[in-house]
């Protein structure tokens, strides 16, 4: 029987849930794909654990058996996994710890599932070129919009189509905060606190609100779906943090849904990206999106226009998206 060895780097709010969910799905994966998907290593920032015959949920949730210093690349060297799942922090200056983890994977013939975004958003072109050269697959639902399957729709359902425009609400926290302020009259601080309590905000919620999270997701989406790796710094951004009381009142009075959306447009020279604040009237499909619910509109030559509303941000939804990536990966092995 084929054994598929999985290492998970980052065991915080998302990573620890991914580990437990993967272990719970082990029998189902065996039935569906005929292989033993074995979680052999997990780590946080400073310690980790490797076990060749497979970890159990208790090894992940109780760090008593973890070894100090066995984290990151040393953990991957010790575990030699077939698949690396990275759920560590995103850092848009250094690339985050996920950069070294993804580099290790694509240079050692391992497949990768990225939940953290910064490695791909900053260095996606180089990493994907190495992955291709070494026969490694890179999935990144968690890093691109989690439960809203944007890359899947663009890459698989619209395979070969000329996609001329993508407009999408990709950051659940900014949608949630705007909704709370416009529809419920919450203050910015109250709305942010609630998004944090729901486990959907980035450690610094300014990343969600000032458009950097949406811009990073746009870069990952354009790169994975179209092979167009845009410069993150060059994506113009509007910010929820600069919305005025007058603007909030105007959206409320007009009955509009406010959203921070990412737009990709195909021009003569390739794809352009931007992040902008928009109000959607009652008849626009995005107006139905409530709270952290995401939304996608795609225009593709020959196919026409599509709208998809759903995939609200939540830790559970992100975990479900990571397991979907696992299924896609196993189906292709
Ligand atoms: N929350 C959400 O809804 C979503 C989050 N994401 C992305 O998922 C990632 C994780 O989010 P979340 O779980 O909420 O974040 P947390 O802050 O809860 O967890 C981060 C984890 O990363 C670990 N870590 C930090 N540095 C390193 C390192 N050098 N090597 C290995 N592990 C490290 C931390 O370790 P330690 O435990 O030791 O501190 C911690 O376990 C982020 O990149 C985020 O952008 C993506 C989609 C949705
Ligand atoms: N902070 C993000 C979480 C995942 O990317 C969001 O609000 O959607």
UniProtKB/TrEMBL annotation:
Aspartate/homoserine dehydrogenase NAD-binding domain sequence ranges: 10-139
Keywords of this entry: Amino-acid biosynthesis, Methionine biosynthesis, NADP, Oxidoreductase, Threonine biosynthesis
Pfam families referenced in this protein's UniProt entry, alphabetically: Homoserine_dh (PF00742), NAD_binding_3 (PF03447)
The keyword RNA-binding appears for this protein: no
Entries under Gene3D superfamilies matching the protein: Dihydrodipicolinate Reductase, domain 2, NAD(P)-binding Rossmann-like Domain
InterPro entries: Asp/hSer_DH_NAD-bd, HDH_cat, HDH_CS, HDH_short, NAD(P)-bd_dom_sf
Reaction(s) this enzyme catalyzes, per UniProt: L-homoserine + NADP(+) = L-aspartate 4-semialdehyde + NADPH + H(+)
EC number: 1.1.1.3
Homoserine dehydrogenase catalytic domain mapped to chain residues: 149-326
Recorded superkingdom: Bacteria
Pathway stated in the Swiss-Prot or TrEMBL entry: Amino-acid biosynthesis; L-methionine biosynthesis via de novo pathway; L-homoserine from L-aspartate: step 3/3; Amino-acid biosynthesis; L-threonine biosynthesis; L-threonine from L-aspartate: step 3/5
PANTHER family according to UniProt: HOMOSERINE DEHYDROGENASE
UniProt record similarity statement: Belongs to the homoserine dehydrogenase family.
The name this protein goes by in its record: Homoserine dehydrogenase
Species of origin: Leucobacter albus
Origin organism lineage: Bacteria, Bacillati, Actinomycetota, Actinomycetes, Micrococcales
